[in-house]
Write a structure and sequence with these properties.
- By secondary structure, the chain is of the alpha/beta class.
- The chain has two domains: about 70 residues, Up-down Bundle (Methane Monooxygenase Hydroxylase, Chain G, domain 1); about 140 residues, Pectate Lyase C-like.
- The strands form two sheets. Strands 1, 3, 4, 6, 8, 10, 12 and 14 form an eight-stranded mixed sheet that branches. The protein has a seven-stranded parallel sheet with strand order 2-5-7-9-11-13-15, covered by helices on one side.
- α1 packs antiparallel against α2.
């Protein structure tokens, strides 16, 4: 299962647990939580460090909520008949600790022109500062992380999702469009989406700017159900023109 499909499955299961708690059924919620915890543990080797931390935090919050709704034990009352000791109250489920990274963090590349190669359909670029980055070949997935003060141009359409994690004061031009954008912990980032437009999911972001050749739908997970939030704004005409110029430049 790819990371996007697992993300949607995780969110659906987490919401089911919240629904059972809201309905006053902590025992059912606990069963669902145990199943979700096992799913995360089984998929751990395929999850990024960021996703492991994010899922772990959600599991910890759900575990606490389930534990708080467990029925309290009846108070002891004296009786001449011997009674069995009450069973201990179940402990909260503890999510597995994120796996340690297999390799050390790469060094930061600064003030460079970077051509990103596509391997197994994935274009990946991390730890860049004040760089000019280009992805020229088609990719099924684009992953950008820890990028500061840089400009990233992806020439071809991205067949699958594009992931932006911890980008700051940067511009990302997806000239051919992308199936979906998943953006976490970014600030001051301008995203231009070419093609027919698309959908961006943002979480823990601020100062975001979105524009495109078609409509760009933004879902802010910090403010669900709101069409417009303080976390982002539409691009101005001048910003759209600048992005198109970047896309057209060789």
């Amino acid at each position: 299962m790819d990371s996007l499909a697992f993300y949607h499955l995780f969110q659906a299961d987490a919401q089911a647990i919240r629904d059972r708690l809201a309905a006053g059924a902590p025992a059912e919620a606990r069963e669902l939580l145990e199943s979700l915890l096992k799913s995360v543990q089984d998929a751990q080797s395929e999850l990024s460090a960021y996703d492991q931390r994010s899922y772990g935090q959600t599991l910890a919050e759900l575990s606490t909520a389930v534990h708080e709704q467990q029925p309290s034990r009846a108070r002891f009352r004296f009786s001449q008949r011997p009674r069995a000791a009450p069973a201990p109250e179940p402990e909260p489920i503890k999510p597995a600790a994120p796996a340690a990274p297999a390799v050390p963090e790469p060094p930061v590349t600064t003030d460079a022109t970077v051509a990103v190669a596509v391997a197994d359909g994935i274009a990946r670029a991390t730890h860049l500062e004040r760089c000019r980055v280009r992805v020229a070949d088609p990719a099924s997935t684009v992953q950008l992380a820890d990028v500061v003060g840089s400009t990233v141009v992806v020439d071809a359409a991205v067949a699958g999702p594009t992931f932006l994690n911890r980008l700051h004061q940067s511009t990302v031009v997806l000239a051919g469009g992308s199936h979906q954008l998943r953006i976490h912990d970014c600030d001051g980032v301008y995203v231009y989406l070419g093609g027919a437009g698309g959908r961006a999911i943002i979480e823990r972001c601020r100062g975001m700017v979105f524009g495109g050749a078609g409509a760009v739908v933004v879902d802010d997970f910090d403010h669900p159900g709101q069409a417009h939030t303080a976390s982002w704004r539409p691009a101005t005409a001048a910003e759209l023109a600048d992005a198109r110029a970047l896309a057209a430049a060789s």
